[in-house]
Amino acid sequence: MPAPAEYIGGVENSLVPLALDTVFQQQPKFNPIVFFGPTGTGKSLLVQLIATRWKRDNRTPRMILTTGADFAREYAHAVEADSLPDLRSKYRRAGLVAIDDIHEIGDKTPAQNELVRTLDALLARHQPVVVTLPQSPTDAAVLLPSLASRLSAGLTVPLHPPGPAARRLILRALASARSISLSDRVLDLVASDALKDAVKPGTVPRLLQTLLRLEQFPFASQASISEHDLRRCLQDPDHAEEPQLQSITKRVSKYFNLRSADLRGKTRQQRVVRARGVAMFLARKLTANSLESVGRHFGNRDHTTVLHACRKTESLIEEDPSIRQAVEDLKTELTAH
């Protein structure tokens, strides 16, 4: 999904800069760093920005970016393959460990216990740890008390939806990324609460959805438009994004010589899994749909599955020329006017 290349949180999220600076200290004053908040408040974006800066600064040792569900899968595989020492070495030698959606490990008690031991080893060496989850560790009933205790010992940062001033900056950044010209008056109206009966202000996905709606009505960006007409333009019909998902599914399935039903079904054949991953990746890049919405469209899959598929596709784009070409071709088809 298109998003600002920086975190714009406003005064509502004034702790975030301190947390980001702490991650890159020689010996972090606070460790671990925990970002928590509802969907769309920027948890995953913050983790990605940390990863980008870590790579940009050529820091060593390398960092590990994973999810709670992926850590649990890695642990289960290591137990089955009798390779726990390798898994422990991998994580404990990392320069930074970032775990997005750590709550997804909730029903895997052995994996949680392993993570507790991993955290103890990392914290003893002052290696930074960053995690995200929807609620504070002490309120996350799915976490073992021992894990919640470790996570609560550092800096716990609540994330809130941005206020009007931050929303204006986010809208400006999103509009610039899509080459959409918006008058200051329209920006002010959309970012404020004046149109709250037509617009649900707050999170970046919602702001992007609003921007996509404005893009369909070019005259809506003009300074002369009345508040009444702007409200009418922005009143989104139910399921406005669904046709976009259907179009992506149809185009991707045709490109890979599959049926749309294959992408939305349960088959785990490699060629279907790859095509489904490409479709999910494009759905996130080209629409305002949340991970949850994309998951529902593709066979009621949960949001961590979608996130994993998108990250896998990103890796394949780097490694596999055929996938890279497929994504470029499909982007061109889907964005052609």
Question: How would you describe this structure in keywords?
Answer:
16 helices; 5-stranded parallel sheet; 5 strands; Rossmann fold; 337 residues; globular; alpha/beta; 3 domains; Chromosomal Replication Initiator Protein Dnaa, Chain: A
Q: Would you kindly provide a written description of the structure presented here, covering whatever features stand out?
A:
This protein has 337 residues and is α/β, with parallel strands linked by helices. The protein contains 16 helices and five strands. It folds into three domains: 148 residues, Rossmann fold (3-Layer(aba) Sandwich); 71 residues; 91 residues, Chromosomal Replication Initiator Protein Dnaa, Chain: A (Orthogonal Bundle), CATH 1.10.1750.10. Strand 3, helix 5 and strand 4 form a beta-alpha-beta unit. The radius of gyration is 21 Å and the shape is globular. The relative contact order is 0.11. About 2% of the residues have low confidence.
